[in-house]
Amino acid sequence: MFELKIDNAKYWRDCVESIVNLVDEGSFNITKEGISLKAMDPSSISMVAFNMPAKAFSKYSVDKNTSIGLNIENLSKILSRTRDDEALVIRDVDNKVLLEFIGPGSRRRYKLQMIDVKKNVEKEPSVVFDAHVEMVGEPLKDMIKDANLISSYIAFKASKDQFAISARGDSGELEELHEREGSFMKKVEATKNADATFNLEFLENMVKACPIGTHISIDLKTNEPLKMTYKIGEAEIAYFLAPYMEE
After folding, report:
1. Is there a contact between 107 and 100 (Cβ–Cβ < 8 Å)?
2. For 67-95, what is each residue's pLDDT tens digit?
3. Overall pTM surpassing 0.70 (yes/no)
4. Domains along the sequence of the chain with CATH
């Protein structure tokens, strides 16, 4: 049995949005420490790892560790109906998950059927990264949009002094450089240069839920999966994306 309460229901909506952008189903692991989820997207190109500590909830009562499989897309649709000034209570009832929205003088209840998740993911990819970049989220979103104008792929390049992106398509080429001390950059570190190319559609979905003003971290190794992380309040979201390799 568990009962969780979030004073601002829109916060949980935003957290779930960071998951549903890539995956349509997954298992939430609920422990005394908090909620976590690891899931692959249907194509197995990307992975999401979500962690939200117990302290992010105004009430967090968990009798024992449990795992609940849910259709994330259906959950997101319900949460999209969140209204201003609503709190949210989440609890298990008869193999269903009850979502109770509590507003000023009002209550709404939804019940979602638990499901058996087809792909359970236990571990994150094991990569020893060579470069670490931290930057403001909005400029990275703009870089991805710029690259989308001419290509379906984007190359990330990191050295000890700068972070660069490039894209090529039939209509032209794009190159953008950011020095380590630039206004957008918080940190650029590299034990060796790292260079890899990634699918722009997946990257666009990964950065979509990043809150305004939040920093995004990117870890790179040449032609290896990328790791991208950022925070949504107390929660942390991490994405892994396999590189694009030309045949």
Report:
1. yes
2. 999 999 999 999 999 999 999 999 999 98
3. yes
4. 2-113 (3.10.150.10), 131-241 (3.70.10.10)
